[in-house]
Fold:
Amino acid sequence: MQLQGKVALITGADSGIGQATALAFAQAGADVCITYHTDAEGAQETKRRIEDAGRRAVVVQCDITDKRSVDAAFDRTVAAFGTPDLLIANAGTGMSGMPVAEMDDDKLMQVLRTDLVGPLFCARRFVKLRQAAGGKGRLIFTGSVAGHLPAPGSAPYGMAKAGINSLVRSLSREVAKDRINVNAIAPGLIATPMTQQRLDDPAARDHSMQAIPWGRPGRPEEIAGLAVFLASDAADYVTGQTLVMDGGLTMNWGGA
Structure:
């Protein structure tokens, strides 16, 4: 098993990509700390599935925009399983329909703190723990194709995800001496609770599919499979990268 005996902390593992990644990690041999913000029921379902796969799991409520809450989640992980080997900084929020000129300041700061500052808080604590343990470890951020492409109506989301790409590059250089790999996955349109309304609207779905050469949304399990690879020893020589997984969307953007 690719992750046998590893300990992972996965933020936002109560649904969607985070939940799929938690299960994939368990199936690959890892024990998992599941964090959630509001969906306690979803987090407990993730825990049940991990335990059904024969691995251990703990559930922690965490607001990643609060440093104390982040520290508490890491402390709980250490107490339950020891120092985490893997961090998937996945928790985030979306937004749409808010042009820059009309933007609400509170919404702006909520998106930036959740999608950029919060992942940085998580990364900082993880790096300190790994350095204290002698180095090594894998840190994977969930980015987005919005970090590469125009995001009209949701500029702060695109700004935050572009910031994740920059953070990956800078942090990977800082911790290369410690042999801590730092990468991100940039999904395109994935069928998750956050995108369900868009996919349920026939007109919106058809418009989206026209822009995706593969002609379908991605599945959370597909993103999870890439995360397992990046977390494994097979990806030891991969660091400082943002890997796009989008069914060809970014390659088609100019003609979409």
